[in-house]
User: Which sequence fits this backbone?
């Protein structure tokens, strides 16, 4: 579609009338079956069966439309958004891989979807056996001994982990251990989770090669060190090559090691956190094992631990005895429930489907493909515009970070401009301005599910934007041109009084 026509098409979508504006009296999109005369003769006036206090005195006021109108309305709205089913979604650190439809079909099975959390455990043996099996698989994948599937997201998994550290040390009389070490390249949820659990956060600076060195850790560890939170590979997409030495230093100080599983997609089948010396692990199964996510959910952040920490995991726990599965609440040292019931079951089920579909060798291939895709895409970028942050000779893992500072110095075009310009090419932007330790950062994670052609097209798009920045700077700085909504005033958009939350506000914003 030509750019001019595309722009007109996008504007037409933005001007799409609301359902109440499309409504016309008398139009219907359903047809209820007529009541058989025999039932009318037997029961009489059906309205008399309903208490008068429950009868509506006024019309419900729902839009009256035909089925085609409703379908077209929602399909047009869906075209205003981007999705993994449309194209590559290279959000660094988010692992937005393609989600197999077989997993969706299984999760929607009525025998599972219609289960109720208040059912007696005798009637849910099937789902308990499935979840128990998933726990065992996650133990094998990570090198942990016990897992809880209850946490609903990675950040909640972090909070669980830090609470376990706190309670474990408290039980052993280490009241002075109140500090958690966190690298400067960490996700923001790491220091937030540690602080919520009552710890003081100590920042560890990254070395010039982008890793946490044993020397830096040793200089900050003391008798107050409760533990350390670390993502491997780190947020720069670099493997922490001194991890064995780092874990040894923290353990010798009496602290525990926490593994943030956000980047586990690079290690599947290759390295296990437990073998690197970690005591606690959380996995973002909605990322690593291809469960649909985005827009704040759904997610799941199961937490695994070594043997002497198992008694602190959230309740209920799933156990097996005499051929039956049970939900156990009787754990005196548990940190307590962290979420209602036993986690986001449908998300966990999809993750299990992914694991079973690939198997042990398939998971290893997936991580290899993710790392290969990342390095191939990085190799195609114009280094004069996008400077890699990986140390020379050190390959990236499943994601990489480049700095567009050279492009900014040369043209004045910043990373945010590049991200907006990508949208005009029908592609999704990478993560921008993160990690904070990299100036003008663009963080790209293609995942293992993209073809060579897609990787090459994305690299050429970034390179063409750099060329356009030299020739037609305003075209880039004023982008996007072809999206349904142009560039927003981000400062104004963040103000609570500027947020558009209802259709009435949308109408007012259009008039203004």
Assistant:
């Amino acid at each position: 579609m030509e750019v001019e026509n595309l722009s007109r098409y996008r504007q037409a979508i933005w001007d799409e009338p609301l359902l109440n504006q499309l409504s016309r009296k008398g139009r219907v999109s359903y047809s209820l079956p007529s009541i058989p005369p025999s039932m009318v003769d037997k029961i009489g006036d059906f309205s008399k069966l309903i208490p008068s206090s429950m009868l509506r005195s006024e019309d419900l006021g729902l839009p009256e439309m035909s089925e085609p109108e409703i379908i077209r309305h929602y399909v047009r709205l869906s075209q205003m958004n981007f999705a993994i089913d449309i194209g590559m979604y290279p959000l660094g650190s988010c692992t937005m891989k393609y989600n197999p439809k077989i997993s969706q079909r299984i999760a929607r099975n009525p025998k599972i979807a219609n289960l109720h959390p208040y059912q007696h455990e005798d009637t849910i043996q099937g789902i308990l056996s499935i979840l128990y099996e998933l726990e065992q698989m996650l133990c094998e994948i990570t090198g942990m001994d016990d897992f809880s599937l209850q946490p609903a997201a990675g950040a909640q998994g972090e909070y669980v982990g830090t609470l376990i550290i706190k309670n474990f040390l408290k039980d052993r009389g280490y009241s002075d251990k109140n500090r958690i070490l966190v690298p400067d390249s960490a996700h923001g949820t790491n220091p937030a989770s540690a602080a919520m659990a009552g710890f003081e956060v100590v920042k560890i600076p990254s070395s010039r090669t982008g890793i946490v060195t044993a020397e830096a850790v040793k200089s900050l560890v003391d008798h107050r060190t409760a533990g350390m939170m670390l993502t491997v590979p780190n947020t720069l997409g670099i493997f922490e090559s001194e991890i064995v030495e780092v874990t040894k230093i923290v353990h010798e100080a009496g602290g525990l090691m926490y593994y943030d599983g956000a980047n586990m997609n690079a290690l599947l089948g290759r390295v296990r956190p437990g073998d690197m010396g970690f005591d606690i692990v959380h996995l973002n199964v909605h990322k690593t094992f291809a469960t649909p996510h985005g827009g704040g959910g759904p997610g799941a952040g199961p937490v695994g631990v070594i043997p002497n920490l198992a008694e602190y995991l959230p309740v209920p726990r799933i156990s097996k005895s005499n051929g039956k599965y049970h939900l156990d609440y009787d754990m005196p040292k548990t940190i307590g429930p962290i979420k209602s019931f036993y986690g986001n079951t449908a998300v966990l089920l999809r993750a299990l489907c992914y694991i079973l579909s690939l198997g042990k060798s398939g998971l290893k291939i997936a991580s290899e493909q993710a790392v290969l895709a990342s390095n191939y895409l990085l190799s195609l970028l114009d280094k004069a515009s996008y400077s890699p942050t990986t140390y020379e000779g050190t390959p990236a893992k499943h994601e990489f970070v480049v700095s567009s500072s050279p492009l900014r110095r040369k043209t004045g075009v910043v990373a945010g401009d590049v991200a907006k310009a990508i949208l005009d090419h029908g592609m999704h932007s990478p993560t921008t301005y993160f990690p904070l330790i990299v100036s003008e950062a663009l963080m790209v994670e293609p995942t293992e599910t993209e073809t060579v052609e897609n990787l090459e097209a994305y690299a050429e798009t970034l390179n063409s934007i750099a060329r356009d920045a030299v020739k037609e700077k305003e075209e880039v700085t004023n982008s996007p041109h072809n999206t349904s909504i142009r560039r927003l005033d981000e400062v104004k958009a963040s103000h609570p009084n500027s947020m558009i939350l209802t259709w009435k506000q949308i109408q007012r914003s259009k008039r203004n």
The longest helix spans residues 345-380. The two ends are 30 Å apart (CA to CA).
